[in-house]
């Protein structure tokens, strides 16, 4: 069965949902939402991490401030190309900084923070232990 785009545009089901009210009239892919998801994914393994409110986000770029457990601060740029360090302080984006892109936040933090790597590994072990217990009950 092929979907007719006209039928989809007549479906107002999600427009009634208050969660989507902010998006009415916009066709922006808002990279901020993507950045929030990145933050929520790894917040447990860093000291502090949040989407920058001082650097403007757009549909194609967002900035994330992260403080590792080693107390090092970074400003990360998130684009379709991936994530990269653009500054060594919160809300600092240096256009001249040539740092490599990482496909995932895990890869980037893995290179920046041994404590992140340890916290992530420990969380993984705990999950595996929990699964093992569930399997035995």
UniProtKB/TrEMBL annotation:
<dbReference type="Pfam" id="PF05303">
    <property type="entry name" value="GSKIP_dom"/>
</dbReference>
<dbReference type="GO" id="GO:0090263">
    <property type="term" value="P:positive regulation of canonical Wnt signaling pathway"/>
</dbReference>
<dbReference type="GO" id="GO:0008631">
    <property type="term" value="P:intrinsic apoptotic signaling pathway in response to oxidative stress"/>
</dbReference>
<dbReference type="GO" id="GO:0034237">
    <property type="term" value="F:protein kinase A regulatory subunit binding"/>
</dbReference>
<protein>
    <submittedName>
        <fullName>GSK3B interacting protein</fullName>
    </submittedName>
</protein>
<dbReference type="InterPro" id="IPR023231">
    <property type="entry name" value="GSKIP_dom_sf"/>
</dbReference>
<dbReference type="GO" id="GO:0019901">
    <property type="term" value="F:protein kinase binding"/>
</dbReference>
<dbReference type="GO" id="GO:0005634">
    <property type="term" value="C:nucleus"/>
</dbReference>
<feature type="domain" description="GSKIP">
    <location>
        <begin position="31"/>
        <end position="131"/>
    </location>
</feature>
<comment type="similarity">
    <text>Belongs to the GSKIP family.</text>
</comment>
<dbReference type="GO" id="GO:0005737">
    <property type="term" value="C:cytoplasm"/>
</dbReference>
<dbReference type="GO" id="GO:0004860">
    <property type="term" value="F:protein kinase inhibitor activity"/>
</dbReference>
<dbReference type="InterPro" id="IPR037395">
    <property type="entry name" value="GSKIP"/>
</dbReference>
<dbReference type="InterPro" id="IPR007967">
    <property type="entry name" value="GSKIP_dom"/>
</dbReference>
């Amino acid at each position: 069965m092929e979907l007719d785009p006209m039928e989809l545009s007549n479906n107002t089901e999600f427009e009634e949902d208050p969660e989507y009210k902010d998006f009415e009239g916009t066709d922006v892919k808002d990279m901020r939402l993507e950045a929030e998801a990145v933050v929520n994914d790894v917040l447990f393994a860093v000291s502090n991490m949040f989407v920058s409110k001082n650097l403007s986000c757009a549909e194609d770029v967002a900035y994330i401030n992260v403080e590792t457990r080693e107390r090092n601060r970074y400003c990360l740029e998130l684009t379709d190309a991936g994530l990269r360090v653009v500054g060594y302080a919160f809300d600092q984006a240096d256009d001249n900084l040539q740092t490599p892109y990482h496909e995932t936040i895990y890869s980037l933090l893995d290179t920046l923070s041994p404590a992140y790597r340890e916290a992530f590994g420990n969380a993984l072990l705990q999950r595996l232990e929990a699964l093992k217990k569930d399997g035995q009950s």
